[in-house]
Amino acid sequence: MNFMEKEKPVGVFDSGIGGLTVVKRITSVLPMENIIYFGDTARVPYGSKSNSTVIEYSLQNAKFLIGKNVKAIVVACNTASSIAMEELRKQFDVPIIGMIEPGTRHAVSTTKNKRVGVIGTRATISNKAYSKEIKKLDAEVEIMEKACPLFVPLAEEGWTKHKATYAAAEDYLKELREFEIDTLVLGCTHYPILADVISEVMGNGVTLIDSGVASAVAVKRELDRIDLNTNSHSPGNQTFYVSDIPLKFKEIAELFLGKPITDVYKVELETLSV
Ligand code: DGL
Q1: Please, how many CA atoms are within 13 Å of residue 83, restricted to the half-sphere of its CB?
Q2: Mutual orientation of helices 100-110 and 78-91 as an angle, nearest 10°?
Q3: pLDDT band at 223 (very low <50, low <70, confident <90, very high)
Q4: Is the CB of 267 under 6 A from ligand 1?
Q5: Of 10, 74, 127, 274, which one has the fewest beta carbons inside 10 Å?
Q6: Which of 10, 2, 37 is nearest to 97 (CA)?
Q7: How many Cβ atoms from other residues are within 10 Å of residue 93's Cβ?
Q8: Is 148 among the residues known to form the active site?
Q9: 88 and 96 in contact (C-beta within 8 Å)?
Q10: Which domains does the chain have, with CATH numbers?
Q11: Predicted model pTM
């Protein structure tokens, strides 16, 4: 593989800031890689939008990253991963890594009692992306999926331990507890922020799968496989593009990224096209 190709950045996109939880994981697995992030903060949430809209926006986001000369694209949004992967892979030549396949593999290899729960946005759950993928790997696994839409604003509010978060978790997770799952996939970028509450409500016997962790490992595996990882020995740069800089952006972004955020640029929506 030629040197120039290896030194290109890895592109990451999400519907907004949630994908920063995935960037955090990628940088711990691949600290030397440069990352270009695009968060579609002007059009978030994707989790309540139709499939055709999510596909259209995802193609635009990927095209933006291709314009930044990325060597691979990480779809750091479970909703976009559950709906747009096929179309993205059809339209772009670079490797495209989503959240569903890696998260599924991790869940199937973790469960002992073959009862897995999946939580995500309405769109992710209604598309049954995780169930379909889990069944492909192990048809014996029984799956219960549950949309938990309120978890997104609760995470963005930074209510990681708030009583409202406990109340929402008790309500959303009741059926999953009764179904006696031993493994729960956090199938939304925001949910790792609420992992402590989710874990407490589910109890000790349930292992949480952070699909961002699984996806970061999959990115490394893919770069290794195609010999496209950087040769650099110094920590990579991260550059962030967003389609809007909403109120409290910095505060929320830093909660998700786990460190101060710099190098943020606004992209005009009109410049995004398929
Ligand atoms: N990033 C989305 C996901 O992981 C959550 C936010 C949204 O609905 O756009 O599904």
Answers
A1: 27
A2: 120
A3: very high
A4: no
A5: 274
A6: 10
A7: 7
A8: no
A9: yes
A10: 3-98+213-271 (3.40.50.1860), 100-211 (3.40.50.1860)
A11: 0.95
The Cα–Cα gap between 54 and 16 comes to: 13
Of 236, 241, 243, give the one whose Cα is nearest residue 219: 236
Counting atoms of ligand 1 from 1, which one is nearest the CA of 189? 4
Kindly report the CA angle at 258 between 48 and 100, in degrees rounded to 5? Answer: 40
What token pair was written down for 169?
């978790």
**What ligand 1 atom has the least distance to the C-alpha of 79?**
10
Contacting residues for 115 by C-beta, under 8 A, at least 6 apart: 141, 142, 143, 144, 179, 180, 181, 182, 183
Exposure of 177 in the CB half-sphere (CA atoms within 13 A): 13
Share of the chain above pLDDT 90, in %: 95
Instruction: Point out the ligand 1 atom lying closest to the alpha carbon of residue 18.
Output: 1
List pLDDT tens digits, range 45-63: 999 999 999 999 999 999 9
Ligand 1 midpoint to CA 230 (Å): 29
Q: In whole angstroms, what is the distance from residue 100 CA to residue 84 CA?
A: 11
The CB of 78 under 6 Å from ligand 1? The reply is yes
Q: Is the CB of 58 under 6 A from ligand 1?
A: no
Let me know how many helices (H) and strands (E) the chain has, helices first. Answer: 12, 10
